[in-house]
């Protein structure tokens, strides 16, 4: 059976136990995944009652990244709610409840304690600072680690329909400050905070949270867009239609489920 993205990330974490960046990538996959939360009974509207499990160390709720894994654990069909990992973290933080992930024979079988859930929520809640500088010199990106490029590619693939494309460049501002910049072209109005946060998460979960990566937004008609196209590393964002699927209960971050 093919490993899931969560399996692959957990295997890498086990293989490189001292590599913090690999561990961060597992938590990033967890936050970005669609997860199936085992329930005590069928959900009623936006109210859900997770099945709770008491262990010697903590109380747990259980999630699985594939429906068949949940069914196998429950020895048959069982009620569940589909949630994004980040919605689940928001729901559990402060409840003193841990998270059992893919418990059973899966390569990603693990337990996330309440302290780690709180850390992950705080990490996801961070927001980039806004600046008003305009680049004077634009050039190709230099010296960025491959894990950041891969992280950006993964994040932007999930931002379907929010912008047409993005360019990663090295820029110099008035006064001599140099930085790398990710410039989005033709972003949908109102999507700027989400795109900036996705960029920040790619930086943080690549283990480079102390690094700098500016975010900017331009229209395709802006002269700066032509400069970026000449030297920037291009990322094409998918059209919304390519990833359009009905949102199951709990997957809308603006309408999280409520614990009963």
Briefly say what this structure is.
By secondary structure, the protein is α+β, with helices and mostly antiparallel strands. It contains 8 helices and 13 strands. It has 2 domains: 121 residues, Uncharacterised protein PF11572, DUF3234 (Trna Endonuclease, Chain: A, domain 1); 109 residues, GMP Synthetase, Chain A, domain 3.
Biggest sheet record: 6 strands, mixed
Q: Could you say which overall geometry the principal axes of the C-alpha atoms support?
A: elongated
CATH architecture designation of the largest domain: 3-Layer(aba) Sandwich
User: What name goes with the CATH superfamily of the largest domain?
Assistant: Uncharacterised protein PF11572, DUF3234
Low-confidence stretches: 243-260
First-to-last CA distance: 36 Å
Protein name: SseB protein N-terminal domain-containing protein
Domain SseB protein N-terminal: 19-119
Region (Disordered): 238-260
Pfam families: SseB (PF07179)
Please describe what this structure looks like.
The strands form 3 sheets. Strands 1, 3, 4, 5, 6 and 7 form a 6-stranded mixed sheet that branches. This protein has helices at 5-15, 20-32, 67-73, 85-92, 114-125, 146-157, 192-205, 223-231, and strands at residues 34-38, 47-48, 53-54, 59-64, 80-84, 98-101, 110-112, 135-139, 165-173, 178-185, 214-218, 233-236, 258-259. Helix 2 (20-32) packs across helix 4 (85-92) and helix 4 (85-92) crosses helix 5 (114-125). Helix content is 33%, strand content 23%. It has 2 domains: 5-125, Trna Endonuclease, Chain: A, domain 1 (3-Layer(aba) Sandwich); 135-243, GMP Synthetase, Chain A, domain 3 (2-Layer Sandwich). The chain is built from 8 helices and 13 strands. With 260 residues, the protein is an alpha+beta fold. The chain starts with a helix and ends with a strand. This is SseB protein N-terminal domain-containing protein. Residues 238-260 are annotated as: Disordered. Residues 19-119 form the SseB protein N-terminal domain. InterPro entries: SseB_N. It comes from Boseongicola aestuarii.
């Amino acid at each position: 059976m093919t490993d899931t993205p969560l399996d692959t990330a957990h295997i890498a974490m086990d293989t490189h136990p001292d590599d913090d960046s690999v561990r961060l990538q597992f938590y990033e996959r967890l936050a970005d995944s669609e997860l199936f939360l085992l329930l005590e009974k069928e959900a009623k509207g936006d109210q859900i009652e997770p099945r709770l499990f008491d262990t010697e160390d903590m109380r747990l709720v259980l999630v699985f990244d594939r429906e068949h894994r949940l069914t196998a654990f429950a020895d048959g069909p069982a009620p569940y709610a589909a949630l994004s990992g980040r919605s689940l973290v928001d729901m559990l933080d402060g409840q003193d409840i841990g998270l059992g992930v893919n418990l059973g024979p899966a390569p990603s079988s693990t337990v996330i304690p309440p302290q780690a859930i709180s850390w992950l929520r705080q990490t996801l809640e961070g927001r980039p600072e806004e600046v008003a500088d305009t680049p004077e010199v634009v050039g190709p990106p230099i010296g960025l680690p491959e894990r950041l490029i891969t992280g950006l590619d993964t994040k932007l693939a999930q931002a379907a329909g929010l912008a047409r494309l993005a360019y990663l460049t090295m820029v110099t501002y008035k006064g001599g400050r140099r930085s790398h910049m990710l410039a989005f072209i033709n972003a949908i109005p109102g999507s700027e905070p989400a795109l900036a946060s996705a960029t920040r998460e790619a930086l943080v979960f690549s283990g480079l949270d102390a690094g700098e990566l500016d975010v900017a937004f331009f229209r395709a008609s802006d002269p700066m867009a032509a400069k970026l196209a000449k030297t920037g590393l291009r990322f094409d964002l998918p059209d919304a239609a390519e990833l359009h699927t009905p949102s199951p209960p709990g997957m809308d971050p603006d309408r999280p489920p409520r614990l009963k």
